[in-house]
Amino acid sequence: MQQSTPTLPPPAGAAGELLENGRRVPAPAPQRNRKPRVKKLRLALILTGLSILAGISTVFGMMMAVSRDLPSLEDQAQYRAAKNSQLLADRDGGPIASLAGNQNRILVTEDDLSPNIPNAITAVEDRRFYDHKGVDYRGIARALYQDLRQQRVVQGGSTITQQFVKNALVSYENRTVFQKLREAALAYHLERQWSKQKILTQYLNTIYFGNGAYGIEAATRTYFGRDREFTEEDLAAETVQPHEAALLAGIIASPTAYDPVQNPVAARERRDLVLNRMLEQRMISPTEYEQGRRQALPSDEDVNPPPLDSKQPYFSTWVTQQLVDRYDAGPVFAGGLKVKTTLDVGLQERAQQAIAGRVGGFGLGASLVAIENRTGEVKAMVGGSNFEERPFNLATNGHRQPGSAFKPFILIEALRQGRSADEAFSSRKKVLRLNKSGDKFEVNNYEDRYSGVISLAGATAQSDNSVYAELGQSVGTRKVARLAQRMGVRTKVSTNLAMTLGGLERGVTPLEMAYAYSTIANNGRRVSGSLDGVPFSGPIGVRSVTEGAGDDAEVDEVRRNWTRVYSEAVGQETRRLLSGVINRGTGRAAKLGEFAAGKTGTTENYGDAWFVGFNDQYTVAVWVGYPDALRYMTTE
Fold it and tell me: Which of 176, 274, 337, 597 is most exposed, with the fewest beta carbons within 10 Å of its own?
């Protein structure tokens, strides 16, 4: 009986195929239900279409809404109904200044501008100004690329038109995305109704150039018009030269960072950058470029700020610049802010009386800064004797050689490295070797008076140059410079050996010295502050900023931060040694009958005279000298 052989399926081939009679037969495709996929695709298409329609409707609605702002934009740009901001004193809350850019603004028309001004502005601020339609997408992409490449914000993507709209609407720096979109839409509309020349002119009438100058005409008069007289028909902006226009255009990005008086190196570099951009775009010739780079910057004697409505103008200008850096110029001068400052009116009046009583009538200049140790707040500031005649603020901008008042920074660095106050030194005329080439630095004491063998404590009390030059070289001038800046000196400190005796390349300001010494008063802790997360670059001048009123008021209050710069043990020893200067050293005239410490400082032939001292409550820095040039305060 024959057995039947079961039929087996053909062997499977590659990829799931079947073999039949030696041939590969594709496996039948599994049946799939196509309906769910089709439904999902239809739903996605419908949602995409609705999203596009919604986006178009939103943009159209925004365009229609912002177009209603155009008729009033020109009036708003000129701040005809602006609300002045007020600076308020600390204790009594009375106003010390009213801030309004409109009162000093001089409006110009298109025909009043030297062609160098629009050339310089567009060259550095918006080189595609005459090509875009209010929003420069290429510029935004370029700025985004540079920001991503540098991993920080290095370029802005907004156009001049957008900046004008922002200024006219008194917008704050921390604007919402919707506000920025609204400004972009308004810029687009504006380009369709105004000429490029009108937009640029109105922009120039609204921007802040630092030193109280609002608008291009006020800026030109402030920086280049001290020795000229102007009428309504004779405007300064008509005669601006390429190098002058380049300086003004460079200031716009940061009136503080590119201030030709406060930061001349940065201001010159920025001006030369603008000149180079103008040359690249064939706005000036190579000869004009070279001539422009050789021109000097305006000095503090050249700068002539507009009048300021303030009872304390030196303090007010310092605080105002901090506010502009934080909130931008529009809100500060036209946003109706209420600013509570740190000024103590009683202390301020006594400080002014003290200065006037000591140097009045001698043609000398003097400056004083008082800081409260516990809070880091500036309580008094004397920047000069007459703001209208000399608006230059000696307290914040007067960089002078500190002389021996710089020695405490060397002392602290030595104590940090383990040196003892009892360490013995040789007090004698010395010749120190500067470098491997054999250059030498000769050190003499005042009137060639030497003490033989003297301790570090004694050398501190007697301000012995020969000891401190040797000590500064030993501990390292670079380390001393870094320490001084961590303690509160903001100006770059030179590191040559002359710095051990206070011979600095740029000098320091009374504000910097008071701030750094307040770190000593606090046993090595530096007090700093910030508003809404943005730090101040030095001591605190603002307590709070209020925008709006009633239930809608928003208040920014200062936040304090304490940074440990050196150990408390070093701090206590430093305070003890500097009290010796008051009790038995060069600062005996400042002895008060209670704890006090500090250091005197004079430069050669009394070109500058300093005293920086502190008690448990305040730190005070005083400088006396001739502010115009180096003249010696000698008696015949």
Answer: 176
Question: Among 279, 308, 337, where does a domain finish?
Answer: 308
CB of 614 closer than 8 Å to CB of 597: yes
Q: What is the DSSP string of 403-467?
A: GGGGHHHHHHHHHHTT--TT-EEEES-EEEE-STT--EEEE--GGG---EEEEHHHHHHHT-HHH
Query: Which structural domain, as residue segments, surrounds residue 437?
Result: 398-524+565-625
Tens digits of residue pLDDT in 443-455: 888 888 888 899 9
471: closest CA among 374, 392, 406? 406
Residues 577 and 431 in one domain: yes
Q: What is the pTM assigned to this prediction?
A: 0.76
Are 550 and 338 in contact by the 8 Å Cβ rule? The answer is: no
Evaluate whether 187 touches 165 at the Cβ level (below 8 Å): yes
Q: Tell me the two tokens of residue 386.
A: 């007459």
Residue type for position 387: F
pLDDT tens per residue, range 532-590: 777 777 899 999 999 877 777 888 899 999 999 999 999 999 999 999 998 876 766 66
C-alpha distances (whole Å) from 43 to each of 35, 51, 55 are 12, 12, 18
Contacts of 544 (CB under 8 A, 6+ apart): 339, 340, 555, 556, 557, 558
Q: How many domains does the chain have?
A: 2
**Which of 7-16, 338-347, 624-633 comes out lowest in average pLDDT?**
7-16
Backbone phi, psi, residue 528, to 5°: -130, 170
Residue 257: CATH number of its domain: 1.10.3810.10
- The H-or-E segment that residue 290 falls in is helix 286-294
Identity of residue 443: V
**Side-by-side strand order, sheet with 597-602:** 377-382, 365-372, 618-625, 608-614, 597-602
CATH number assigned to the domain comprising residue 405: 3.40.710.10
Rounded CA separation 225/117 (Å): 16
- Nearest CA to 396 out of 358, 357, 368, 356 is that of 368
CB 404 within 8 A of CB 506: no
Q: Which of 88-102, 407-421, 597-611 has the highest mean pLDDT?
A: 407-421
The answer to whether 242 and 278 are in contact (CB under 8 A) is yes
- Exposure class string for 605-615: b at 16+ Cβ within 10 A, else e: eebbbbbbbbb
In this structure, the chain runs to a length of 636
Select from 276, 308, 340 the last residue of a domain: 308
Quick one: angle between helices 116-125 and 264-280, nearest 10? 100
Q: pLDDT tens digits for 130-168?
A: 988 877 777 666 655 655 665 554 445 588 888 888 777
Q: Is position 376 within any domain?
A: no
Give the pLDDT confidence score for residue 635 in this predicted structure.
39
Contact residues for 144 (Cβ-Cβ < 8 A; gap 6+): 157
Residue 210 maps to a domain? yes
